[in-house]
Amino acid sequence: MAGNKKSKAKMEQAKGKAKEAVGRTVGNERMTAEGRAEQSKGDARQAKEKGKDAFRH
């Protein structure tokens, strides 16, 4: 189950990076901000999972 959540975090980060890049390219500030927010959400999810792993081992 933890592997599934880790992969979801990586996907959110990648999706956020892509959305941010597209937003910058077309000059859409809202899309750029949404991309950054998705990246942050993925980063937070990944940190949470790493914290769980630290207590497990």
From TrEMBL:
Pfam families, per database record: CsbD
InterPro entries assigned to the protein according to its UniProt record, in alphabetical order: CsbD, YjbJ_sf
Domain CsbD-like, chain residue ranges per copy: 6-57
Record's compositionally biased regions (Basic and acidic residues): 9-22, 31-57
Region (Disordered): 1-57
Family affiliation: Belongs to the UPF0337 (CsbD) family.
Record's protein name: CsbD family protein
Organismal lineage: Bacteria, Bacillati, Actinomycetota, Actinomycetes, Kitasatosporales
